Amino acid sequence: MNLYYELLKYPVFSMKEVIALYSSERTARVALGKLLKESMVLKIRNGLYTCVSGEYGGPVANRFQIASAITPSSYVSHHTAFEYYGITDQVLYEVFVGSETRFHDFEFDGYTYHYIKGNIQAGIFSPEFGGGVRVTDKERTIVDSIKDMNLIAGPEEVIACVTSVSSIDEAKLLKYLYEYNNAFLYRKIGFIFSEYQAELGISDDFIRMCKDRIGNSKRYLTNGISEPGYSGEWRLVYPKNIKRMKNCFQSAKVVC
């Protein structure tokens, strides 16, 4: 048996897969240790490994496959999910990973993997021919990214990504909003979608349903607003240049 070729069947594997190929755990560990020493296998983090490609010399597993294998419940989320769908042309060297089980952030192959607490389970799926990837669908990615825009990608990049999504399923959006049950999230999504309603093809009914659930307090759309505007309709303070954010970001990236 050639252990390397057996392990190539798995983009990411653990000792469980190695031990299954041997009569004893000790023999399995010795065999894996030999591959690690010969740089035919790379250690991603404790208990998680990937083979080195004989074709290009890098890890067989990509960042999406690694993110999906960190814990039994882990999945690709937020900006990294937008990257998976090819919606953004800005690749971050941070990988955002939702999981019901906490893990410590770690680095591998130039990327830092960040734990994000998985608050709801809906909207996560494994794409056909995805090589084991688990990822939030586009609607869940939109909701999560707007919910956490201050913590991860920032309003400019989030709006650029959201307004690049085609054929948004409003029923899915409402399902995830209902599960989060957060008045501020209804307000942020309702306001952003009303600003870009024509571009996104969002119905008046969706905007109205969001507006009915925004609560009474005044809130800020995002932190650090230098030129504020105020929407009495949404009781929301927002950047005055919000309608220019998408074009500004796409033409000048992080400088604008």
Give a brief rundown of this model:
With 256 residues, the chain is of the alpha+beta class. Helix content is 38%, strand content 16%. Strands 3-4-6-5 form a 4-stranded mixed beta sheet. It has a 3-stranded mixed beta sheet with strand order 9-11-10, covered by helices on one side. Strands 1-2 form a two-stranded antiparallel ribbon.
Task: Kindly describe this structure.
The chain is an alpha+beta fold. The protein has 3 domains: 3-51; 62-136, no CATH class; 144-256, no CATH class. It is built from 12 helices and 11 strands. It has helices spanning 3-7, 15-19, 25-37, 63-67, 78-84, 138-147, 155-162, 170-180, 183-195, 197-200, 204-211, 245-252, and strands spanning 41-45, 48-51, 75-76, 94-99, 106-108, 111-117, 124-125, 135-136, 219-220, 228-231, 236-239. The strands form 4 sheets. The chain has a 4-stranded mixed sheet with strand order 3-4-6-5. A 3-stranded mixed sheet has the order 9-11-10, with helices on one face. A two-stranded antiparallel sheet has the order 1-2. The longest helix has 13 residues, at 25-37. It is elongated. Residues 247-256 have low confidence and may be disordered.
